[in-house]
Amino acid sequence: MLEANNLVAMFGKKIGIDELILDESNSCTLTFDGIAITIEYLEEKDTFYIYSKVADLPEEQERLAVYEFILEQNCFYKGTGGGALGIEKSFNSIIHTTLFPIQSASENAATRFDALISMHVNTVEAMQSALKNLLIANEPETIANDNLINTAIRI
Q: What is the rounded radius of gyration, in angstroms, for the C-alpha atoms of the chain?
């Protein structure tokens, strides 16, 4: 637990929060560029779980496209930065999760932890943008307009 608190404290100093510590539930939540990230330490696994809400689950008729997108991004970690996208039904949300096992960290653990947090935030931003574009492209009005344009070009 000491190493986990030290990593969080060093990270806090780097971002200008001198007294950053894990709370009584072994977690803390920070916001970067409007993205809330929770850093949670599971002592029994000696691992940090870093997670963020990417978006709300869309309406039922749009979910198939979103699920396909999530699976495609998770395949070979194509768009997840080494983390995973999934859904949390109880919150009706799409979540991005990244793990940081402390036992596998070397002497440069603080540098790797900082880089992982940065990659996590960047990945969530990219996923939010990609999902927004996907949902806009799948809106009935957009599809109808695309069909009109394609029809007009054929005439």
A: 19
